[in-house]
Structures are given as structure tokens and as C-alpha cells.
Amino acid sequence: MNGGRKMRADRLLSILLLLQVHKQMTTGELAKHLEVSDRTIHRDMEALSSAGFPVYAERGKHGGWKLLDDFQTRIIHLNQSEIPVLFLPLPEKLLKEMGMDKDAKTAQMKLLSFLPEKVREDAENISQRIYLDTASWHPSIENKPFLPVLQTALWQNQKVLLTYMRSDGETRERLVHPLGLVAKGNTWYLVASVNDEIRTYRVSRIKDAQLSGETFVRPPQFDLVRYWEESSQQFIKRLPQYHVVVRADPAIVDKLPYPGRFPKIKMLDEHDRQGWKKISLQFQIEQEACAYIMGFGKQMEILQPEELRTKVQRLAKEILGMYSEE
């Protein structure tokens, strides 16, 4: 089977599995999930129908593609490339924080017991070949005592009464509808709906969380991954920006993104007679730019903005004066 035919066969099988799991999906939802066009999905549906698979379209505002209720796909084996996905080592720290570490290990052991001996050996060896370390180099210790409460609320669709400390230090109470938990590195966030508005709360700032005993209806179209990706992009766009242009000694170019300082770096493809590079740097604030540039001493010179150049000159004189007095 050539690559194109195999790719289509895999996609057709994926469509059957998606419909079996979700019961009903629109053409647009299938196309987005499989990263193809709506036209391709229509062709695939014709191919499945011609091959005897019981797929049909339900018309109307809430319609979509469906399978006959009694249809079940039968997967008799896993491909060699699919096995590692099921047995990749899970982030143990995050699982412990959610109280799922023991359940995760038990679930993988149960799954292993269903595999043939040779496949089981390959699966067991994966943990010695791949390790996922989600911790940062500079981990922060955050207080997260209410994760179990939030988790229970998510599973049961219960409203939660939060006592939350905002970034300005003010504490507020909110009755929220929990929609999801997101771990960004070592930091947990709660995504919740408040008065039909979706908001994000840092779990370490939650001072109290109580189950209300009252349930809510989860928005059927809410997609946690899509919400998080879109809100993350919006957050990045709202960050303050401080642009600087410098000339730098070629000897330090490879050291610009050193650990602890993360400006956005853009080479301007220009150099002077001494071979120094012209570079654009983007920081969030002026103070961050000062600390970064002064760390390279005489191997980096500010070209723009002039006020930053003046400030660094003043700071350098103050430092020199302080040490000259000794």
C-alpha cells in the first residue's frame, strides 16, 4: 500500500472511531480534528458508505454525521508506532498532586496484561527509553491544597464557592462553574465560568474552595484545549513590550539566550567594521533590559533607545564610584 492510500485508510478508520466515541460530529468538527478540508470529509464519507459502513448524515441545526447505534469497530491489534503513545511515562509529580498516581500505574498494568508477550516487552521497555520531565529548572513551591476539591467538582459538575486572592492582594468570593484544570509547568490553573464569562484562576491563589452541592450544565461546545491556547496567545499579546537595538561582540552571540534571561532575539543581518552584530532585543520592561545588557559588560553596546543608553551610563558610573571609594 503506498503512502497516500495508507494515510487515507488511517483517516477513514479515525473517522469511524471518532463517530463511535462522540456519537455525532459535524463535517467541520471532523475536518478540524483530522486537519483536512470539509470536501475531503465528504469524499471520505462517500467512500465509507460505498464500502458498506453504516454512516449517515442527520440534517438540521443540531445534525451531523452518525453511525447506526449497533455498529462497533473491532480493532484486533495495535500498530508498532501506536504502542509508545499508550505507555509513555506520565508526569508523576502532576499525577500525585491530583491524587491519580496509583490509579495511573494500575491502569497501565491492566492494559499491559491484554497485550501479547512480545508487544508487552516492548511496552515495558518504553519507560527506560523516554522520560518526560515537566519540572522547570527554577521550580517554585506553590500551595495547592484545594486541587482535590476542584477535581471532585469537575467530575460531578458541581458549582464551587471560591475565596480568591487577586494579583493586587484583594480577596474576593466567587461562585464558579469549574470547566477544567490546566498544568502549565509546575503551576496549576482553574478554568471556570462566572456569570456566563469564562475566566482563569491561579490555583495557588485560591484561599478556600467549598463544594456548593449544586450542579450546573457544562457548555456543550466548550473546548478546554482550544480555550487555553487562545487565551495564552491573548495573554502574550497583552504583555508589555520594551524594544532595544544593540551591537554585540560575535563572541557572545551564542550566549544571548542564556538561562535566567529570555528576551526575544532577532538578528538584523548587519555588522560593522569590527564585525559586531546588530541585534534587536524585546523585553517586557526597562529594568529587565538594564540587567540583561549590563551583564555582558563591554561586549554589548546600546544603540536605541537613547534613554536606556543614558540610564546604563549613569548606573555604570554609580557602580564604579561605589567600588572606587573602597
TrEMBL record:
UniProt keyword annotation of DNA-binding present: yes
PROSITE patterns the UniProt entry points to: HTH_DEOR_1, HTH_DEOR_2, WYL
Any GO MF annotation of the entry: DNA-binding transcription factor activity
Family annotation (Pfam families): HTH_11, WCX, WYL
UniProt cross-references to InterPro entries, sorted A to Z: CBASS_pafABC_assoc_protein (IPR051534), DeoR_HTH (IPR001034), HTH_11 (IPR013196), PafC-like (IPR028349), Tscrpt_reg_HTH_DeoR_CS (IPR018356), WCX_dom (IPR057727), WH-like_DNA-bd_sf (IPR036388), WH_DNA-bd_sf (IPR036390)
HTH deoR-type domain sequence ranges: 8-67
UniProt cross-references to Gene3D superfamilies, sorted A to Z: Winged helix-like DNA-binding domain superfamily/Winged helix DNA-binding domain
Keywords associated with the record: DNA-binding, Transcription, Transcription regulation
PANTHER family per UniProt: PROTEIN PAFC, PTHR34580
Name listed for the protein in its UniProt record: YafY family transcriptional regulator
Native organism taxonomy: Bacteria, Bacillati, Bacillota, Bacilli, Bacillales
